[in-house]
Amino acid sequence: MSVHIQAQQGDIAETVLLPGDPLRARWIAENFLDNAVQYNNVRGMYGFTGTYKGTPISVQGTGMGVPSISIYAHELINDYGVKQLIRVGSAGAYQKDIKVRDIVLAMAASTNSNINRIHFNQDSFAPVADFELFTRAVSKAGLLDIPLKAGNVLTSDIFYDADPDYYKRWAEYGVLCVEMEAAALYTIAARFGVRALAILTITDHVVTGESIDAVAREKSLKNMVNLALETAINR
Ligand SMILES: O=P(O)(O)O[C@H]1O[C@H](CO)[C@@H](O)[C@H]1O
Ligand SMILES: O=c1cc[nH]c(=O)[nH]1
């Protein structure tokens, strides 16, 4: 058992899907995995392991934000030997040509979090997706006929920004959408030499104000989950 995950060695697969929402983790386990067994309930941050097309896969809620996902990614890699981490998250669109329910692959994750500045003595580390996982996801999306956008995303520490125009500078530089964890996931994966990718579904539109409700965020993101699972097993 690690500090935040109550599992034994061998309970967690080498590939883990990472939704922020623990209830989305349960929905994925119940609807996409065979013979899923719950291995974690510490802090209500559910984790399950089952199989997908015969391959062991785990799904672990991470909570919201850089500190929370950093704890789960660190323990999964260092205490349970996880090698591939695929975030399946929701995001808010920054570009007019991106629509609610579109899927975005985070090639890179800019951030306003200060954690990497502290870690790299105020220098700027560029967190990027694993090339192999990224190219696999692009090719699987083609096979599954799932349209994709891919590019730079913003990992923000702020969900409710006091400045309604904050997004505009990022949007001008081509950032596709905002979420709250990918930069931390990519940085920790780089530190420990494992693979990571963030696959995001647009649930809110920062420019138009459109959004989908909490139940849909938990249960309707099927394309993203199918793409993550097909990318994970690579067959
Ligand atoms: O849907 P999840 O994976 O939680 O991701 C997004 O949703 C949360 C904010 O509502 C943040 O965690 C953000 O990154
Ligand atoms: O971080 C997030 C996630 C979803 N939607 C947003 O607007 N921001």
From TrEMBL:
Q: What is its EC number?
A: 2.4.2.3
Q: Quote a single Gene Ontology cellular component term.
A: cytosol
- Which GO BP terms sit in this record? purine nucleoside catabolic process
Catalysed reaction equations from the record: uridine + phosphate = alpha-D-ribose 1-phosphate + uracil
> What Pfam family does this protein match (any one)?
PNP_UDP_1
Report the leader peptide range: none
Q: Where is the Nucleoside phosphorylase domain?
A: 16-209
This protein's name: Uridine phosphorylase
Q: Specify the species.
A: Sinomicrobium oceani
Q: What is the lineage of its organism?
A: Bacteria, Pseudomonadati, Bacteroidota, Flavobacteriia, Flavobacteriales
